[in-house]
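Lab notebook, bench 4. We co-purified these components, and the gel suggests they stay together. Before we commit to crystallization screens, I want a quick structural picture of the whole thing.
Request: model the full complex, all chains together.
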Amino acid sequence: MVSQALKIDLTEQFRRLPRAPIVEAVIEMRARAEVPWEEATIRGRLTPLLPGYQKIESQSEFEHEMQFGPGQDAVQRHRDLGWRGLRCESADHLHIAQFNRDGFVFSRLRPYDHWEQFQGEAMRLWGIYQGLASPSGIQRLGLRFINRIELPVDGPPPDDYLRMPSEVLAGMPLSRDGFFHRDVLAVPGYPYIITIVRTVQPIQVAGSKGFGLLLDIDVFSTESFELGGDLLKQRLDEMRWLKNRAFFGSITEQALESFE
Amino acid sequence: MTLATLDSPQLSYSAVPTRGAGPEAHFIAKQSEEGQRRLRETHSLGLGADRAFEELFVVARECRSQNWDGYGASPIASQTFNHACRFLGALPLGIPAPSIGAEPDGHLTFEWHRSLRWTLSISVSPEGDLHYAALLGSSKVYGTEPFFGETPSRILELIRQVSFL
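Here is the predicted assembly.
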């Protein structure tokens, strides 16, 4: 596989899409709490710092395991591994922040506003996490945008919205009833990976007009770095550029026009 | 499904996604797990993993009490076992199954062994650290990587080198 040189250009401007189909934007810093991580203490310190986040719930960790034995069928079990952290939801239900033993996750649900608002709130809450958990570095940094395009029943095919292989089976004119397509792409010269998932979500709730065409773009880096300096901001800016390029490279012109 | 796993040790089916909170993120995670489960059920890709899980359960059960070796060994803690399960489950499909053992300090070990000069040992601690030591021909490498649910690229590269993939 030959990779062409790629240069991230942070001055590049992208088309503004007032009706962008973003249903969730996520920033995740995977890091290890370096202080005792106990529920009563963390909850007591966190709650007064988050007046806009009224719903605060405990999160537990579960392990799914399978037990094997000679001459026996496999036995599946779920195990509760105990308290992991707190999930905090804003009063308007648009923001969800997870403060966990193994890192911080911030989600902005639809309607997505704009990058500065999203990043600003994420970094404000990340600062709170740093104060609680005292991590010395970030082991994995992720930026993920999930888009959902409403597909009317008996409407245009997914190919009208997403760039995807038009012919699955050569010489077999079969209709595509479902798909889950996942690409994992390395970024030459940079410590980033892009995972792109294209799939169809069945009709979920009453009032939904049709199927959801999902375009999930996850840009991440597993190259760890210590905190301090501007590296976190620089990486997020570069990952945002990659995310934008991945989005505009995945969507047809026809779809873009419908988001303007 | 496209599996682009050609020229980078970081590219693997089992890469853990950035964790979302909404219904679409849950839907994608469920679909992805289902696809992975189906691949693991296949004979060619899943057989080694099943055997390795079985071995891990046996070792953990045999070494769960104090002094399991008769020389004062520490027991395998449940956290260590859980980290080891997740580490094994996170290995990309098609990776050769490791041999599994326990150490007197209560760590669980995964070993890939090609020959006396090409061997890799990874020790899982109760804190979730992966301590590794490898012989790669005339070179020795060792170090520690934290485990956050996906195989660190450094360790994946060592497995490939030792396994000659």
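The longest strand of chain A covers residues 75-89. Worth comparing against the SEC data before the next meeting. Chain A touches chain B through 52 residues (CB under 8 Å).
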